[in-house]
Structures
1.
Amino acid sequence: MNALRFFSKLAILVSFALVCTAMSDSAAKSTDAAAASSGSAAPAVHIVYTERPQGEEPEAYHIRTLSNVLGSEDAAKEALLYSYKSAASGFSAKLTPEQVEQIAKQPGVLQVVPSRTYQLHGPNKLQ
């Protein structure tokens, strides 16, 4: 029974990752293009997986976690793209490489991964 529970949770997390990727696609493209044109370490979209907050609204917890790294609640709200609350707990945000290193060390942060875009279906080649 534990194996079934494990694989159910794994399937939910994989689905969550795909949804996160799809939702942050447009933001990732714009930050990738800006970084490529400037040649600097511009912020890029990352998915930050966190523990589920206890006794606090998820979005407030995500903003507080970001504020610890970015220095202010306003900067955190500007960087925050989306708060995930259902299948898993986490958020997507625009972060520089240095900020990624800092946020990965924050209490309650489980993992920080760059947002990636995957094409699930290719063009129709039957024509």
Note: The longest strand covers residues 44-50.
2.
Amino acid sequence: MRTTRRVKCSYGKPPARVPFIPLTDFASPVTMKKYGVTPGSATLDIVNKADRDKEIMVLAKIYWGDPREKLIEAIDTIPLTCLVMGSRGLGTIKRAIMGSVSNYVVSNASCPVTVVKHSPPK
């Protein structure tokens, strides 16, 4: 039995409505051009590995706008029962000026949020 996981990206200019896109279609050049996105190869590698190794179906959903607001919107509209997100590890000054997406989501989400801290390569 396969379970379903969803991946969200926020790039480019929005079309009228974006459906959930199966991972196999999301990685195709035609789909990337249609939605004006270029997902990072590391992101695609991670979700492809999860799809293969954990036998889950990965679906992508593209959002445009402020990542803080769009993540909260996704939690409520999909709906998500939990969210795992990364942290870029900004310093105190940059975080104070730019704001922290992960701090905002942890404070405003209606579901449990796990933040995975960025660790620089050794």
Note: The beta strands are 3-9, 21-22, 56-62, 83-87, 113-117.
3.
Amino acid sequence: MSDIAATPLAIAQARSTAARARLSDTMSQLQARLNPRMLAQDAATGLVEKGKSVAAEGMETARQNPAAVAGGAAALGLVLARRPLTRLLQRLLQSGDDATADTLTSLKPERRPTAEERTEQ
């Protein structure tokens, strides 16, 4: 009779041991996935892949719309060169040619009085 009783006990112990092994394996996998270094590495890899994808799409769009790219580049160039262009216009205004100076002066906005000038009036 002890052989019959031992069999279910042995089966239960074997199941318990297998369940512990599965649980231990699952915990090891979770610890590996939740390791901060692994999370950072996964995030960096994802960002690099997404960046490559976006760059490839941008290049394809640029190939399909060269006029829009040229217009955007020109606008960006004007924004970046606004100070030198302003200085050039100011020099033109201060230099000699009256016709050019009159035309450019009419485009120049009026100067607002300073706080001191307003109090003097």
Note: The radius of gyration is 38 Å.
4.
Amino acid sequence: MEGNSRPPATVEQVVAAMDRLVSLSLVGQHEIAQRLGLNVTDLTCFGHILGAGDDHLTAGELAERANLTTGAVTGVLNRLERAGYARRQADPADRRRVRIVPDEGAAARIVEMYDPFYRRLAELSAGYSAEEIGALADWFAQAAAAMRATLEEIRRGGTP
């Protein structure tokens, strides 16, 4: 579909809109996590586990994606296993390493929770051209990289 004519916006307006979306998303993640009997960190990590598809993550890979220490990820995995969301499975290529495998029933519950939102996003996206969607995808990727760099600075004790 061809993109619609849109009013111009300033960078400040875009950042303010993003801040509102992030704030609302944090509230939504908290609500969804509570409904699923998880905390937000565990839900976020489970999202990374699901996002890996059949290329199951190691604990170290999950730690990197979630910006957590490996020690923190051990606690996350213990809780996810106890709650029936994931299990550790020996890596067939290296039996000393374990991979994190999502429970199929738990994955279905997560999809069911997020499906209405993703349907709304798909409907919203239909009003944008492929080029506009590409620009949005690029902007979000670059914004995520900027956030990662800022988090690294904060963790090193510097000022962002």
Note: The first strand starts at residue 86 and ends at 91.
